[in-house]
Write a structure and sequence with these properties.
By secondary structure, this protein is α+β, with helices and mostly antiparallel strands. The protein is 38% helix and 22% strand. It contains 10 helices and 15 strands. The chain has a 5-stranded mixed beta sheet with strand order 13-12-11-14-15, with helices on one face. Strand 11, helix 7 and strand 12 form a beta-alpha-beta unit. Helix 4 runs antiparallel to helix 6. It is elongated and about 70 Å long.
């Protein structure tokens, strides 16, 4: 059986609570077509409402057909042997597709404007998706002692993020009335934009898109990430440090504090750590410090990463992985993530990395 967990990323931001069904009959949606060069392989139908495949079929002469409620739910077709999903929305009527296993999930889509633009989205981002896979492989192979490789990776990662932002904003600007823009915004740009910029991009979409089921889900998410907005008081927390001593955020009142969420198992975090170290060394004598909050679940791995990366500032963790109490309290859904807090306890900036981290601190710590 194909590992359907690989498709989970496309659904993470969609709260299932928003998918209540009414009592009225729902018209059906049929997706049918062909997948060339996929002799005797299986194709799976995956719904954003389920963690397992809703249906599957073995391709005969490359043909397939699935029928589901036309309730504008996000679905994916997963081809056996391919890790990239074909995305579509279950719009009432029939969606015709002509795909090829060698280029899956790209192909010809006919019959529904919103799904035609979903295919445009996948085509526009195919090269970037491939690059992301390569960057993840490269990150996992880098030794933390190889500073030259880490710096090279950081430069590549920064350029990649800029490319994603440029491509995403360009797509959205020309597809403001298409549901695909919502998926570009929430899948590609969500973690790369500051919360207020994310909200601005969302507000630029048409009323039809914003009022859709997915639009309401995105709006709810944006309200969540705007929790602890710049200017708000940072909620206090207490967690144990590497020696088992409780540390509270309020113990650092009067200083500028970068609360840095990371983990030893997080490749992008480890790649970003040299920038955080540089910031600490440059500004630690200017009323500035760092409080690391680790999402580790293994104490030895946590301590080893601190030593390897030179993270010699206060570090806390409850070793509960994604169930870390502070991460939950602060609504942290991806790492690396950080907040810069002023001497008065108010949030000054969020998710500042790379050169932006140094530039922000230089401007604040005059």
């Amino acid at each position: 059986m194909m590992d359907l967990k690989k498709t989970a990323w496309i659904f993470l931001w969609i709260p299932s609570v928003l998918y209540g069904q009414g009592t009225h009959p729902i018209p059906s949606c049929t997706v049918s077509g062909t997948i060339r060069n996929a002799v005797d392989r299986k194709v799976y139908l995956v719904s954003s409402l389920q963690v397992t495949a809703r249906d599957s079929a073995r391709l005969r002469e490359g043909k397939f057909s699935f029928t589901m409620p036309g309730d504008t739910t996000l679905y994916a077709l997963m081809l056996e042997g391919s890790g990239t999903p074909f995305l579509f929305i279950s719009i009432p009527g029939t969606l015709h597709v002509a795909l090829n296993a060698t280029g899956f999930p790209l192909g010809e889509v006919r019959g529904q404007r919103d799904n035609e633009s979903m295919q445009e989205y996948q085509k526009d981002f195919k090269a970037l998706s491939d690059e992301a896979v390569e960057l993840n492989k490269e990150s996992g192979a880098i030794s933390q002692a190889d500073t030259a490789a880490i710096e090279h990776f950081r430069i590549r990662a920064d350029a990649f993020n800029s490319s994603v932002l440029d491509a995403g904003k360009k797509f959205i600007s020309s597809h403001k009335d298409d549901m695909a823009s919502l998926f570009v915004l929430m899948n590609e740009l969500r973690t790369r934009l500051q919360p207020l910029d994310l909200e601005k991009e969302f507000e630029g979409l048409s009323g039809k898109v914003r009022r859709s089921k997915f639009g309401l889900a995105a709006e709810a998410y944006i309200k969540e990430v705007n929790f602890n907005a710049v200017g708000d008081m940072a909620p206090d927390f207490t967690q144990k440090d590497t020696l088992g001593k409780p540390l509270s955020l309020t113990m650092f009142r009067g200083k500028y504090v970068l609360v840095d969420f990371w983990a030893s198992w997080c490749g992008p975090c480890r790649a970003e750590n040299p920038n955080v170290v540089a910031a600490y060394q440059m500004f630690r004598n200017r009323n500035f410090t760092i409080l690391g909050v680790s999402l580790d679940d293994n104490r030895s791995s946590w301590l080893e990463a601190i030593h390897q990366d030179g993270l010699y500032w206060n570090q806390v963790s409850d070793l509960q992985h994604w169930n870390n109490a502070v991460a939950i309290q602060y609504r942290i859904t991806s790492i690396p993530s950080n907040l810069l807090i002023g001497p008065d306890g108010r949030i000054i900036a969020k998710n500042i990395r790379g050169e932006n981290l140094l530039n922000t601190l230089q401007a604040v710590l005059k």
